[in-house]
Design a protein that fits this description.
mainly alpha; 56% helix
């Protein structure tokens, strides 16, 4: 049972069961839903966002993201590890943000509640080929993006 706001305005809460079709759509639209959640969309506004938020905060999903971040950090700091990545990273940027990556890995790996927004930000950061992690032409500050994800992992609200 998912609890959703009736009209997305913060009004009354309504219960709605998730159907198998909803779950399939969420898996197919995961990237877009992650971007929406990372930008601050409230999970309780629709079934797809609510289901995706539930998936992201699971320990298994967080552990997978932490492992991915660990592989990226190892590839940037250990030359032999860089061959294990399917897509090359901007190693100098990752080395510069090594402390932040370490904190991100710790926060994702720590049991307990986390905010879906922070997990979504980590997911988008690690999976966006046009982002500062992989694309040299992207002028965004990688350290700031990782810090933002770490800060957003704190469960500040019910999502």
């Amino acid at each position: 049972m998912l609890l959703l706001l009736d009209d997305g305005s913060g009004g009354p809460i309504a219960g709605k069961p998730a159907r198998p079709w909803d779950r399939l759509l969420v898996r197919l639209r995961a990237g877009r839903l992650d971007r929406d959640l990372a930008c601050g969309a409230r999970p309780e506004t629709n079934v797809e966002l609510a289901l995706r938020a539930q998936m992201l905060v699971r320990v298994s999903a967080r552990r997978d993201l932490a492992r991915g971040a660990q592989r990226i950090l190892a590839a940037a700091t250990q030359p032999s590890a860089s061959r294990r990545l399917a897509v090359p990273v901007c190693r100098d940027r990752v080395r510069h943000a090594a402390e932040e990556f370490g904190e991100l890995i710790r926060r994702l790996s720590t049991p307990g509640p986390v905010a879906a927004r922070g997990v979504a930000q980590a997911s988008v950061l690690l999976g966006d080929a046009s982002g500062p992690l992989y694309h040299r032409g992207n002028a965004e500050d990688l350290r700031a993006r990782v810090r933002e994800a770490v800060d957003a992992l704190r469960p500040q609200s019910n999502w």
